[in-house]
Amino acid sequence: MSLTYQDVVTIKLDSLATAAAKWDEMAGKFHSVETLYTKKVRTVSDDGEWLGVAADSASARFRGTQSQLAAAQKQAKAVASLLRDAHTQFTTLVKAVKDLTAEAKKEHFLVDSQGKVTYDWSRVDKGARNDPDFAGWQNRTRAAETKWTDAIRKAVRQVDDADQGVKLALRAAAGLRPADGWFRISHEFNAQAQGDIEKYEGERAAELRAKLRSRKELSASELDEMRRLFRDNQKDEVFSRTFLDGVGGPKGAIEFNQQLRDLIGDDTNKSAYEDIRNGLAAGVSTATRDPKTSFYSSWRENLRKAGEENYGSKTNPLNGYQVMVDLMKHGDHYGNRFLLDTGDDIIAAEKKHPGFLTKWGGGHKGIGNDALDGLLGIMAKQPDASNAFLDPGPHGTNERLTYLLKDREWPKTAYVGPAGIHEDKALVGITGREGLGAALEAAATGHQPLGPGEHPNPTAVHNAAQARVMHEIVENIDQSPIHKNLQQPLANALGEYSGDTHEILSAVDKDYIAHADGEGAWTRDGRSHMSVPAKTLVHVMRGLADSPEAYATLHKAESQYISEELGRIPRDAQGHDRSTPIDKSGAVLGVYSAIREDVINDAKASAYTAADWKAKVAYHILGGGVNYLPAGDWLQRGVDTWTFAWGNEAKAAADTEASAKITDEYLDANNQLVRMVDGWAEGRGIRNKNEIQGLTADTLSHFTRGDNWGKHLLGNP
Predict the structure, then answer these.
(1) Kind of pairing, strands 359-360 and 413-417?
(2) How confident is the model at residue 539 (pLDDT cuts 50, 70, 90)?
(3) How big, in percent rounded to 5, are the helix, strand and coil portions of the chain?
(4) Are residues 572 and 698 located together in one domain of the fold?
(5) Residue 627 vs residues 144, 272, 545, 554, 699: alpha-carbon distances, Å
(6) Residues 449 and 530 in one domain
(7) Residue 223 and residue 254 in one domain
(8) CA gap 198, 202 in Å, rounded
C-alpha cells in the first residue's frame, strides 16, 4: 500500500478541482488556437491559389498540425474529467477514513499516525480494576482495538486503490502504456484519451487477463495489480462491462474461470486467484444488472451460444452453462432479470439437447453438472428472484415450478463400460435438487433458507405470490416418496404456513374448504392465505415425514402455533369462543398422530427403524429449541412445560430404545395435550380442576376425531 493513514488524513483535495479547471481552460485555449490556425494557415493551401507539389506537401502538414490541436483538446478535456472524477472519489473515501477516526475517538480510542487504534487506558481508574468483570472487559476492549484498526486499514486501502486507479488513468490518457514500466507510444497528443478512470482500469484488467492466458502466469506485481483492479471496481458497471467485452464476453469469462480454477488448485498464489475469481463473479453481477442496456442483450445472446459449447472432452463433456454457474456461485446480488433469463435459457437448452447436463463418470471436480439446480441455489440467496422464477402467477401462466417438480427429467450420472452406457441407479433419489429445495423454501417464505439450528416462524405473514408458490408446491408434490433433498426445505417452508395448515387439518373453517380447489392463494382480513384439499396436504406431510427431522420441524411449528392460538383466546371468553380453538388444536395433533403412526408402521418407506425415527424426532424437537417467543412468556408456557418435562427424561435415556419409548409417551395426546392445556390454564390463572378437566376431555375427544380422520385420508382403516 503506497498511501499511509497519515497521508490520507492530511491530504488536500482542493488542488485536484483547481487542476481540473486549468485543464479545461487549456482545452479551450487549444480550441482557440485550432480555430485561428484553420482560418489563417489551412486556407493558404486550400484556397486554390497555391498549386503544385509544394502546396500538396504543405496541406498534408497543415492537416497533421490541425489534428494535433484537436487531439490536444481531447486529451486536455479527458485529463480534466479524470481529475474531477478523482476529486469526487477521494472526497468520499477520505471522509470515510476521517469518520471512522472520529467515531473511534468518541468511544475513547486513540489513533496513531499509522492508523493503529488503542484504547485510552489512562481513563481506567484503580477502582475499575477491582471489578469482577474487569478481565472480560479488557478482552472485549482489546478485540475492539483490533476491529477499529482493521476497519481504518481497510478504508485507507480503498483510498490507495483509488489512487492507483487515478495514476493508471492519467498515464494512459497521456499516451503512456504499462509494459515492463510505463513508456510513451508516441510523441503526439493522445486523440484516444478518455475521461473515465474505470474505463482505463477495465482495459488494463483485460490486458492482464490476456497475459495470463498466453503466459500461464503473471509476475508478482502484475498479480497484485490485477487483484487490486477487481477489488476496487467490482461494483462499477463501466469497469465490469469494459473488462468483460475486452476478454470476449461470456465465452471469455467461462474460459477465464476455467483457468482460475486450475490456478486456485495450485497452492501458489491461491488466495490472490480466489480474490480475482470473486471479483470476476462480482463483475458479471454488476455488468448484467440492468436488462435494458445493449450490453445485456448482447451478453445474453452470446451466453446462449457459449453455454451450449463443450469446454471438456468428448467422453467427459463440460458445457459452458456449468462453468458459468460455477463462477456465479462466487458472486451475489445478481439482477433478477438476469437470473430468470439464464434459468429459462438453460431450460431451453436441455429441452433441445436431452441429456445435456448428464454427469459422465467422475465429472469435473468441484463443478456441479446440473447447472439449472446450481442456478436455483444462487436464486435462493435472493428470495425475490426465487419467487419471481417460481410463482405461477395469479392466472397460473408461469409453468416453471410445475416443470421442475413434475415434468423435468433430472440429470443422471452415467458411466461408459464394457457393456455400454449405464446409469448409476444408487444415486437416484439421494443426490441433486439441493438448489431446487433451497429455491422453493426461499420463494414460499420470502427469506433465505433456514440454517442449522434455525426453525420456522409458524405465524409468519406472506404475500400472495409466496402463498401461490406454497400452494403449487403442495399440489405438485402430492406423491411418495418425496426426494430426500426436498424434505427438509419443504418442511421449513410448510412450517411457516402453520396458521393455514392448522385450519385445513382441523376442517371446520368454511373459507379454507371453499378455497381448497381454487387457485390456492386468497385474502382474508388483509392477509394472504394458502389452501389445498386436506387429503393432498396430509399426503405431502406424510411424504415429508420419511425424514424425522422434517416431521419434527412440522410438529414443532404446529405446537408453537397452538400455543399462540391458546394465547389469543380472550381472558373473559366462554363457550365456543374458548373451547373451539382448544378443540381444533386437539384435532390437528390427532392428524399428526396418524401421520406418525403411518411412518412407524411402514417398514418399506422409511430409511429408519421405528426406534431410530422416534429418537431422531425427539432430538430435533428438543435439541433444536422450541421457543422463539421471549423466555418465560406465558403464551409459550404450554409448550414449555411439555418440552421441559420431555427433555429432562430424554437426558436420562441410555439408548435409542429408551429415547423412542419416551418419545412415544410425550407425543401421546394424553401427555402433550394435557400438559399444554394445563400450562395454558395456569398462565390464565384458571384454578378450577373440573373446568380444566372438562376442557381437556373435550380436546382429547377432538384428538380422536383428528386421528381417525388422518388415518382415513392416508387410506388406513
Answers:
(1) parallel
(2) very high
(3) 65, 5, 30
(4) yes
(5) 32, 44, 22, 14, 23
(6) yes
(7) yes
(8) 6
Confidence class for position 335, pLDDT limits 50, 70, 90: very high
Residues contacting 53, CB < 8 A, separation 6+: none
Is 244 within the bounds of a domain?
A: yes
CB distance 667 to 572 below 8 Å? no
Average pLDDT over residues 553-567: 87
In whole angstroms, what is the distance from residue 666 CA to residue 66 CA?
94
Does 89 reside within a domain?
yes
- How far apart, in whole angstroms, are the C-alpha atoms of residue 661 and residue 665? 6
- Of 237-246, 266-275, 322-331, 341-350, the least confident: 266-275
Question: Cα(569)–Cα(580) distance, rounded to whole angstroms?
Answer: 10
- In-domain check, residue 388: no
* Grid coordinates given for 133: 468483570
Q: C-alpha distances in angstroms, 235 versus 93, 280, 282, 623, 643?
A: 15, 11, 7, 42, 49
The pLDDT value given to residue 632: 42
C-alpha cell at 263: 490456478
Q: Are 372 and 347 in contact (CB under 8 A)?
A: yes
- Round the average pLDDT of the chain to a whole number and report it: 87
**Distances in whole angstroms, Cα of residue 623 to Cα of each of 477, 641, 652, 657, 679:** 29, 15, 14, 18, 21
Number of domains comprising the chain: 4
Provide the CB-side half-sphere exposure for 169 (13 A, CA): 26
Strand partners, 529: 522
Q: Are strands 117-119 and 109-111 parallel, antiparallel or unpaired?
A: antiparallel
Residues 297 and 152 in one domain: no
- Give, in degrees to the nearest 5, the angle at Cα 229 between 228 and 234: 110
Co-location of 531 and 581 in the same domain: no
Structural domain span for residue 139: 5-123+135-184
CA atoms within 13 A on the CB side of 575: 0
Q: Which amino acid is it at 268? A: T
694 vs 610: CA distance, rounded Å: 34
Q: What is the pLDDT of residue 237?
A: 96
Tens digit of each residue's pLDDT (9 = 90 or more) over 656-689: 777 777 777 777 777 777 777 777 777 777 777 8
The pLDDT value recorded for residue 653 is: 67
pLDDT of residue 633 exceeding 60, the answer is no
- Residue 311 C-alpha cell reads as 469446454
Query: To 10 degrees, the CA torsion angle through 576, 578, 584, 590?
Result: -120
Residue 145's CB is within 10 A of a number of other CB atoms, namely 17
Distance between CA 569 and CA 585 in Å, rounded? 13
- In 3D, which of 670, 559, 668, 707 has the Cα closest to residue 620? 559
Last residue of a domain, one of 527, 544, 561: 544
CATH code where residue 141 lies:
1.20.1260
Residues 508 and 566 in one domain: no
**How many angstroms separate the Cα of 621 from the Cα of each of 254, 455, 486, 602, 643?**
45, 10, 19, 22, 8
The verdict on residue 130 lying in a domain is: no
Nearest to 625 by CA among 640, 638, 607: 640
What is the value of pTM for the model shown?
Answer: 0.88
pLDDT above 50 for 630: no
DSSP secondary structure, 24-37, as one string: HHHHHHHHHHHHHH
Contact 333, 374 (CB under 8 A): no
Q: Are 593 and 706 a contacting pair, CB within 8 Å?
A: yes
Half-sphere exposure at residue 251, Cβ-oriented, CA atoms within 13 angstroms:
11
Cα 527 to Cα 236, 287, 461, 684: the distances in Å are 40, 38, 7, 29
**Do residues 164 and 205 share a domain?**
no
Domain boundary residue, one of 513, 544, 575: 544
Length of the chain: 717
Q: Are 358 and 413 in contact (CB under 8 A)?
A: yes
Residue 424: what pLDDT? Answer: 64
Tens of pLDDT, residues 455-473 = 899 999 999 999 999 999 9
Is residue 311 located within the same domain as residue 215? yes
Write out the three cell numbers for 79: 485529463
Report the alpha-carbon distance of residue 530 to residue 520 in Å, rounded.
Answer: 5
